[in-house]
Amino acid sequence: YEAICGPLGVLQYEKDKSYGGYVLYTNHLGGTKTYLIDLEGNVVHEWNHNGRQAFMAELLPNGNLLRAEQGADTPVTFGGWHGSLREYDWDGNVVWEYTVRDKNRVAHHGFDRLPNGNTAILVWEKMSWDDMIAKGRDPNDPTIYKNGFKYPDGRVLEGVWPDSILEVDQKGNVVWEFHVKDNIGTAKDQWNPNYHLPYGYKPAYFAGPDWTHWNSVRYNPETDQYLVNSRDWGEMYIVDRKTKKMVWRWGNPYAYGAGTKVQGYARSGDQILFGSHDCNWLPNGNVSIFDNGTMRPDGNHSAVYEIERDGTFNGGKIVWTFKTDDSNSFYSDYQSAAQKLPNGNWQITSTNNGHLFEVTPAGEVVWEFVNPMSGDVPYCVKKDENPWTQIHRSFRYAADSPQLKGRALTPIRKLAPNCPDWKALLDFKPSPNGNAAPTNVTNPTPVHK
Ligand SMILES: O=[N+]([O-])c1ccc(OS(=O)(=O)O)cc1
User: How far apart are CA 93 and CA 84, in angstroms?
Assistant: First the structure.
């Protein structure tokens, strides 16, 4: 089941089946701290960010923390904007920062630190609708807001804001860049100017100025390639760093004229991904993705996929899936993440409910946690959508990983000190008479597992 209302904190932990290690997360907006916790729910390290809210944070192989943070004066307020990356050392000192937030550009969503110390950053950049029409967009398309896009609160935004990747070095020089706006066209390795989410999609900016909406970027040093994914297009792309060409795309062939479609977002054509997040390279050469599954033809449900490519431009087959039979059991309609762990287990972040869990390759849940922190305050129980406990992405690290090696990782305190030990209360204890349901109860209380 997916915990939507109910107890918060660690709900389950099968020590012998879990990868073990430590979980890092920062609350998605609201909170101003980053937590490193053990799997029992103890804080082993904490960063205090002086009141700054974050989109997400990740530990780097050098042991520092890289955190995406919002600042004042963003040109756009599409979900996922942040504008600044700050790198903190273990003690919380800011050792590097880089801001992309001016009237024509804003950094958003994911980032990646490369082995050479450079940082890849996703950036929305402004383009005029006239330029878009010059690139081939049908001038009568209703998703063109030639007089500006009106947010519900009345603010007006000019232009369309396609994605780009900026790679910056430690001194802040841009050393490599890739722009969707330079690759618009109808060739299979371009972004078709007339492909977009259908008019009427909510929020409306997705089918308008937030045209491509990428949300994660990962560099592969072995192949010198970038992997990115687009929520709005239902696709992942590989961009070759040397040639600056798209060399693989997968998830929605209709986006480049190769697939079939029936009208509406819930297309029953060849589309596989419906609002994806968090693409990753895997050590075996495969890639992974969290597919939110919003408006799937067979109904909303999320899934995690591992995909094996076949060497062709658009070839890939799903070789591992995690989803649940009951769609209510696992569904986050936005954000979210999946990390394959070295022992083959997966750590999954289901953003909407701040729900983190670990599954084995066979799909068994062996650790489960629902974020008790909201705006730096611990809660024991969630009653509805409040408190706000969302997490954009979480990460698992082993004690001997480059990120944590040599650190003191002893518990400092409980994350939510005054809450019941839900894990113990929910633990299913076999009865001395065996596991058969009692015969004198017509509606036995469901057990957790
Ligand atoms: O409302 N937000 O904060 C929000 C909305 C969308 C969003 O983009 S997504 O691709 O990560 O879902 C990120 C944040």
Answer: 16
Q: Which atom of ligand 1 is nearest to the CA of 292?
A: 12
CB 70 within 8 A of CB 61: no
**CB 413, CB 42: distance < 8 Å:** yes
Q: Looking at ligand 1, which residue's alpha carbon is closest to its atom 5?
A: 79
Report d(CA 125, CA 108) in Å as an integer: 10
Ligand 1 centroid to residue 4 C-alpha, Å: 19
pLDDT digits (tens, 9 = 90+) for 48-105: 999 999 999 999 999 999 999 999 899 999 999 999 999 999 999 999 999 999 999 9
| Assembly ipTM | 0.95
